[in-house]
Amino acid sequence: MHTVEKIGGTSMSRFEEVLDNIFIGRREGAALYQRIFVVSAYSGMTNLLLEHKKTGEPGVYQRFADAQSEGAWREALENVRQRMLEKNAELFSSEYELHAANQFINSRIDDASECMHSLQKLCAYGHFQLSEHLMKVREMLASLGEAHSAFNSVLALKQRGVNARLADLTGWQQEAPLPFEEMIASHFAGFDLSRELVVATGYTHCAEGLMNTYDRGYSEITFAQIAAATGAHEAIIHKEFHLSSADPNLVGADKVVTIGRTNYDVADQLSNLGMEAIHPRAAKTLRRAGVELRIKNAFEPEHGGTLISQDYKSEKPCVEIIAGRKDVFGIEVFDQDMLGDISHDMEISKLLKQLKLYVVNKDSDANSITYYASGSRKLINRAAKLIEEKYPAAEVTVHNLAIVSAIGSDLKVKGILAKTVAALAGAGISIQAIHQSIRQVEMQCVVNEEDYDAAIAALHRALIEPENHGDVIAAA
């Protein structure tokens, strides 16, 4: 009857609060155990190690990949070392723990530096290409962040008298990588969860290479696989906020309600909008294993949070969440030759995937297709140009848009379309497109980018606030 719990990087950076709220709290004795924690790197560390997730500012990895000389990446790696040592000093006042924490991370960084130096030297010879080894370097660097926070967590817990144990999944100095599932199973076979609190690294080194598929979403994949492999009673993700009916910054903190229960379908819709409750592939692992997921606010430990399960449906049809994304471009392709021909859609979809543009949705009529894609303006423009080159007779237009969605575990609400249109019209917002599938878990409205904030507020007022959704609140 154990739980597997994940703590994100932003929460980990407030470690004393996390220690008091989550790791220990009011627990004593046996109540401290039967828990496995999967921790992310402290906030900002992975950006320094790889590249900034939002701005793209190069970190150690990017400087190494583009380097003409060692100095470019060595300076960045030393900056990471300094930041990690500063974090250690912030966490530990005791000389013993501080020495152990510093020795651990210095050893890891020294090993990584030597490895990268040797690889760069080897690839100076024509028979070896650096590009063939870059993904391995990326994984090695990423693992430093999780190893740092996990090792420190174990140290801090032991300092407080908790029998904590590290599950180092980074494969550091491991002779050969194991398949992902085998790597997880082998590490947890020997733990006694009744008397050991286990802290695992969010990164797992494996034969498949998690970053090849998930890049920086690997920690939730690790978390889900541990929960499935160990037969967890419940999987818990601790975030800095509750899963609520909308962004409180847009509709007002006094207007939003915490979602007490929902299902994995709703979680998937949120992921599609870039507002992940959990990575969709991680959710798939939990669903298959029959493990329920709970989303909790790390800084309100007494609150039950949101329970996500496979078969849940609200007691009556209702809208649970108003969400959306602003970073959407509509790529409209008009070509009379596409009537009755699906090849246009297949080729254009393939092109957008090659450019690594994320398609949130698409719609079509007899002679046009519009792809609602997320990505940089530069890539969107390149996509439009390549489509025009592929189909010279086509007219390609790019629109700056936003998507606003009404989401619920059972969205068969009578008159919801009429209410939605009336609410947006009443707010002076023009609907560019609207989508609702037969599965009845989401309705998407496409609006102009500048109308996004007002549209979120208008739909929350019309579809959630009047009924106050007492059934949803009660389930919390």
From TrEMBL:
CDD domains: ACT_AK-Ectoine_1 (cd04910). The keyword rRNA-binding does not apply. It catalyses: L-aspartate + ATP = 4-phospho-L-aspartate + ADP. Its EC number is 2.7.2.4. Residues 404-463 form the Aspartokinase ACT domain. GO terms for biological process: homoserine biosynthetic process; lysine biosynthetic process via diaminopimelate. It comes from the Bacteria. Keywords: ATP-binding, Kinase, Nucleotide-binding, Transferase. PANTHER family: ASPARTATE KINASE, ASPARTOKINASE. This is aspartate kinase. It comes from Stutzerimonas stutzeri (Pseudomonas stutzeri).
